[in-house]
Each structure stands twice: as structure tokens, then as C-alpha cells.
Specification:
single chain, alpha/beta, Rossmann fold, 2 domains, four-stranded parallel sheet, globular
């Protein structure tokens, strides 16, 4: 099937023409640099285009929110990066932000206000579920009708921001066979990458967290593990490789599943 090509609007280009989009789509470091997660960004951008949403990205002007620096304990670097981003937002009069990374979402929503950055921040799953509820985004079960799907709760969506229902509502509309892991919602296990752990060597112990969490997913016997975070995707994918299951079980982001159902 031919992939649908789209033109992603860039904030500087729109402003040069006197146009101001409703939303800033914050791509994030993983979406910009990680080859696997670039596919998730493309999928979500195609959905935005399909819905005719007024949005733009910062492109080369986008930098890191500072989240990894703060999680690793470098408060000064976090504040430097955050203030730089806030200045960029002021320049483009940004008021509404859509994020696909829960870490970026949490930082914008809960940590930037302390530095004077106050925005309406929406995670892409909240955004998509709202469009589904409004009837503007119609998805059906034909692509996943007979395929079992489980969902891994990202810490910065779930425990940090209480976003549990939206991903499940979307997945239940996409598949007739949604199955929960034994540890789910507020009791879900971290993928092992949060709190800066993504960027450091594993500590001593009997088993790495990502292996334990992958085993939770495998116990459901689901054919698709749905994720909603770049860190979670990396760790679950690594876990499937560790268990030699990457050929049998797919790890896909919810945006990819929706784009697949819409044949975008």
C-alpha cells in the first residue's frame, strides 16, 4: 500500500506569512532523533492532517524541555533549557501544546508554570480520544478485529497525571480483544527507563525492570503490546528481543494503530 505523504507545517514559515496555528505539536527528542519513534511522529502527523487540525512544529528551533537534566539531578541545566524553550514559545505566541511524549507532557504541564510558562497542554491520547468521542475521528476494528492487544501504562501518563482511561477507551474501539496485564493502571510496573534510568547503566539486582515488565506483557498472550511513550517503546522492544519474541509479538504505539486502522 502506498504511504500517504503529508506536508508538516513549520511555525516560522506560518508566522512569516502572518498565520498563527491553534496548536504547537511538540515532537520531542525521541521523535526527532530515534529512528523507531520517528514512525510514531509520522503516524500522528498524518492523523492531524487527516483531521485538518491547525498545528505547526518548531522544526530546527525545537530543543529539549530539560526533563532528562532535572531527572538526573542537574537543576541548573533544566532551568536553562526550560527558559530557552519558554522564550521561543513567547516569540510564537504559543498557548496550546500537543505532546506525544509523556515526559515532555509532564514537564510542560506541571513544571514549566514555576518558571512562568503557563500553557494548555494536551497529551495526544487525550486529544485523539476527544476527537473520537465527538465523532470527528471514526475508527473501526477491521485491522485489529481478531488480534489481542495489551497496554503498558507509562509512569508519566498514569501515576504522574492520572491518564488511564483514554488509552484504554481508544484500544477497546480498535480491537475486540483488549486484555489487561496483571499489574495495570496505578499498580503498573515502570518500563525501567524513567527517572533518568534510560541514560545510565543498570544497577545490581537479580533482573532488569524492562525484562520483568516484558514478562508481564507476555503472560497476557497478546499479539500486540501497545505503548504511548518513546522510553517505554525502547524498553519493551528490547525486552521482546531479549525474550526472542520480536518476530511473534509487535510493539506499536497507539498513534500507529489508529493510523493503520485509517489506512493512512
Amino acid at each position: 500500500m502506498e504511504t500517504r505523504k503529508i506536508e508538516v507545517p513549520v511555525m516560522a514559515d506560518l508566522f512569516s506569512r502572518g498565520e498563527k496555528p491553534e496548536y504547537l505539536f511538540w515532537v520531542g527528542c525521541a521523535g526527532a532523533f530515534d529512528d523507531r519513534y520517528k514512525k510514531v511522529v509520522r503516524a500522528f502527523a498524518k492523523i492531524l492532517s487527516y483531521l485538518n487540525v491547525s498545528y505547526a512544529v518548531l522544526g530546527k528551533e525545537e530543543t529539549c524541555t530539560g526533563d532528562p537534566a532535572r531527572r538526573a539531578g542537574n537543576e541548573m541545566l533544566f532551568q536553562m533549557q526550560a527558559l530557552q524553550v519558554i522564550e521561543t514559545f513567547k516569540m510564537y505566541e504559543v498557548t496550546k501544546i500537543i505532546t506525544i511524549c509523556p515526559h515532555c507532557f509532564n514537564t510542560f504541564k506541571n513544571e514549566y508554570p514555576d518558571l512562568g510558562g503557563n500553557y494548555e497542554v494536551t497529551n495526544y491520547l487525550q486529544f485523539l480520544n476527544r476527537y473520537i468521542d465527538d465523532g470527528k475521528l471514526k475508527i473501526d476494528k477491521k485491522s485489529l478485529k481478531n488480534i489481542s492487544v495489551t497496554y503498558h501504562d507509562p509512569c508519566y501518563l498514569g501515576r504522574a497525571n492520572d491518564i488511564y482511561d483514554e488509552p484504554r477507551e481508544i484500544l477497546k474501539k480498535l480491537t475486540g480483544n483488549f486484555v489487561e496485564m496483571h499489574r495495570n493502571r496505578s499498580f503498573a510496573l515502570c518500563c525501567g527507563a524513567g527517572g533518568g534510568q534510560m541514560f545510565k547503566e543498570a544497577e545490581k539486582g537479580d533482573k532488569e525492570v524492562f525484562i520483568e515488565r516484558t514478562e508481564d506483557a507476555l503472560k497476557t498472550e497478546a499479539k500486540v503490546i501497545a505503548t504511548a511513550c518513546p522510553f517505554c517503546m525502547t524498553m519493551i522492544t528490547d525486552g521482546l528481543k531479549y525474550k526472542n519474541k520480536e518476530e511473534d509479538i509487535k510493539n506499536l504505539d497507539i498513534a500507529e494503530l489508529i493510523a493503520q486502522s485509517l489506512e493512512l
